[in-house]
């Protein structure tokens, strides 16, 4: 129930507890909630719950991840904490339980080569079954449950957001970035294109001090015999990928375009592609990582 302060109705602070079986997707769930504006605190010890929730007022909703790896973990005390918190009118508290089949959990742990927290000195399956028994009271009292056994990451994201009534911001941010190979490739790049095959304005004395943002340089690059075919193929490749990446739950996509010095060709192509994408996609960032670095060296 909303709280009334100074004649105004304030919405209760949303607090989501995320628990479940190890390997069932708690880390993924916490990232999803972070993407929706939650402050995420993972593996919070039970004895700090009151400190975190009862402290200074929060502007952002709160996601708390707790499982058997959390210090002092025990299902009954956690349920008692939840019972008390759910009575507070200024809070909207819910418990999400993440489940998964034993077979799938076994496969996930073997594929990632991670150690199950309860499988020390015994078979992996026994550790999973022991954890099931420990968290069974939480599963029985959960407000929402998700079985991640046969769920893709995109489906998982949509299901969690739907259960909690979260609005999907919906629009992935696309960054188109120019760079210099001399300074290394961008680690954050999802798609990368090398345009060093295009004619180089560096060798034209009148263009050397300019950048790919200048019309004279852009015109020079576009007069390359391979330019039209390349940009047509580039556009035909990139445009259909954007909705597919967003469909998979990606919030940020970086398209990197590189040349030798990162000042002329890559900048011109980045400006061109960025403007093409701005016409069809609402969240576009155009960036030039190395455009102003050592402009007089070979490009």
Core attributes:
single chain, 299 residues, alpha/beta, Rossmann fold, 2 domains, five-stranded parallel β-sheet, four-stranded parallel β-sheet
Q: What is the CATH T-level topology of the largest domain?
A: Rossmann fold
- The rough form would be described as elongated
Distance between the termini: 64 Å
Number of helices: 9
How many beta-strand elements? 11
Average pLDDT for all residues: 88
CATH superfamily of the largest domain: P-loop containing nucleotide triphosphate hydrolases
Tell me the Rg in angstroms.
26 Å
Q: Please tell me the total number of domains.
A: 2
**How much beta, percentage-wise?**
15-25%
Largest sheet: 5 strands, parallel
Output the CATH class name of the largest domain: Alpha Beta
SS class: alpha/beta
* H-E order: EEEHEHEHEHHEHEEHHEHE
| CATH architecture label of the largest domain | 3-Layer(aba) Sandwich
Helix content: 25-40%
Give unreliable regions as ranges.
1-9
What topology, given as strand order, has the largest sheet? Answer: 4-5-3-6-7
Structural account:
With 299 residues, this protein is an alpha/beta fold. The protein folds into two domains: 3-163, P-loop containing nucleotide triphosphate hydrolases (Rossmann fold, 3-Layer(aba) Sandwich); 173-288, no CATH class. The chain contains nine helices and eleven strands. It has helices at 26-35, 49-53, 75-85, 102-112, 124-141, 153-163, 215-222, 227-247, 265-278, and strands spanning 3-5, 8-10, 13-20, 39-42, 62-65, 91-99, 144-147, 173-180, 191-194, 252-259, 284-288. It has a five-stranded parallel β-sheet with strand order 4-5-3-6-7, sandwiched between helices. Strand 4, helix 2 and strand 5 (62-65) form a beta-alpha-beta unit. Helix 4 crosses helix 5. The longest helix is centred in the last third of the chain and has 21 residues, at 227-247.
